[in-house]
Amino acid sequence: MKWQHVQENWPAFYEAISDRWPDADEAELDEIDGDQRAFVAYIADLEGLDTGEALEEVREWLRGELPADVVMDPRHDDHSIRLSGKYLPEGEDESDDDARYGDDG
């Protein structure tokens, strides 16, 4: 993932940050507000690392998966729905209501 994804969806990453750095404090993450330099400095302080080591930890973390909250972007979802149309029988629309399958309220 790229830092841009993190910055644009900062609160959605709190759980992933807490999973990687359990001592991370949500109030302090609020103050960081997606600023990469501030986050690296925070991780360095939190873990007792120098800035270079903290930057490498953050880069390693960025190699992971995007949280589901971030992936659930309407632009991404709409594109995926359109792509799914190639797997539907002829005449069926990919946006049709699927209540008959029991997963719609």
Which features characterize this protein?
0% strand; Protein Yjbj, Chain: A; 56% helix; 7 helices; mainly alpha; 105 residues
Structure description:
The protein starts with a helix and ends in a 21-residue tail after the last helix. The chain contains 7 helices and no strands. Helix 4 crosses helix 5 (51-62). The mean pLDDT is 82. 10% of the residues are buried. It has a domain at 3-69: Protein Yjbj, Chain: A. It has 105 residues and is mostly helical.
Mean pLDDT: 82
Number of helices: 7
Specify the overall morphology: elongated
CATH topology category name of the domain at 3-69:
Protein Yjbj, Chain: A
Strand content: under 5%
Tally of DSSP β-strands? 0
Low-confidence stretches: none
Beginning-to-end CA distance, first to last residue: 34 Å
Helix content: 55-70%
In short:
The chain is mainly α and 105 residues long. The protein has a domain at 3-69: Protein Yjbj, Chain: A (Orthogonal Bundle).
What is the topological layout?
Blueprint: H1 3-8, H2 14-20, H3 26-32, H4 36-47, H5 51-62, H6 68-71, H7 74-84
Helix pairs in contact: 4-5
